Amino acid sequence: MAAPFRTPLTSAVDDETFQALKETVHRYVRERLVPLEAKVEADAAVPTEVVAELKDMGLFGTTIPVAYGGLGLAVSQEVQLAEEFGWTSPAFRGVFGTTIGIGSQGIVMDGTEEQKREFLPKLARGEYVSSFCLTEPGSGSDAASLRTTAIVDGRDYVVNGTKRYITNARHADVLTLMARTDPANKGAGGISAFIVDAKSKGISYGPKDEKMGQRGTVTSDVIFENVRVPAGRIIGLKPGQGFKTAMKVLDRGRLHIAAVCIGAARRLIHEAMTYSGDRTQFGQPIGSFQLVQAMLADSWTELYATETMVRDAARRYDAGEPTVMEAAASKMYASEMAGRVADRAVQIFGGAGYMAVSPVERMYRDVRLFRLYEGTTQIQQLIIAREMRKAHIG
Asked: Is the pTM for the entire model greater than 0.90?
């Protein structure tokens, strides 16, 4: 029997305890967060008391191992919680989403023991908020072409460059930064991953981005001007491994985003079902019309297919199997599915669905971003095709 692709991931939380946590989150999302959606949209911010509640629930530590103060959930469990948060505004999940994902998993996977003990407990408690700094003004899908430099100077590296669309950067305590430490190497091998104190001298932020959707999630440029970072803050103390670390982290992150899309689609279908049962035309509920039923049926079928795909990919990840292709396929299909379901929901609502007071209008804008971040649909297609070619040639 072949050895696993990676070490199998066993949850530190038994099923009974996890189900209790999931039920708590389920109720919290519907009873506490959903009523706040309009406020978050209007204020473009999550209330501070909600941030404190999310910390108290332990949600900042869901993916961090128990040894460092987290819950140590397996991916099969993580995606179920992500589905629950998909039901409401993405801004709420965004409060802790980066910290439990690309903001901490690089340290979990590749950090030294000293780095893990220094940072992971504070991240797990929500004492630290983390942001992930990869994208740049001229480097998006082609992440390996980034231009931010980190040039060695004694025991430090001096960082210069600008990062773009960075979630939670203005609220962050630590930044996981990707920078080029070998200017002569223009490819992925010249990139290193750093843990940077967000309050370091020389770090500044651009204006808050005005976005189409997900308005309660704050993004902005992060500007590095001669920022000194100790050499001991390179993740794993291994220069040139940063891009590999980022790619490893993204497998898990893509499954998480796919699960959020499932939750969003469930909410959209719920809203469409409710409206189609209440709204009458020609003397009967519009849900009795076959063309409306067809849109509802198509939405549910695609949701079911996505649930099956993501649960299977998560199980494979936990088993230590290679899941690069499965994670990419899940993220691609789920994000595209959520967009189609949102479009049908607006269509079922008709003119009411185009009004800002409608929950499906906001969700229509919110889910559009899922097809762009953590790798666009087109990047997922390239990854899938590349893995298919490897398997075929092999």
From this structure: yes
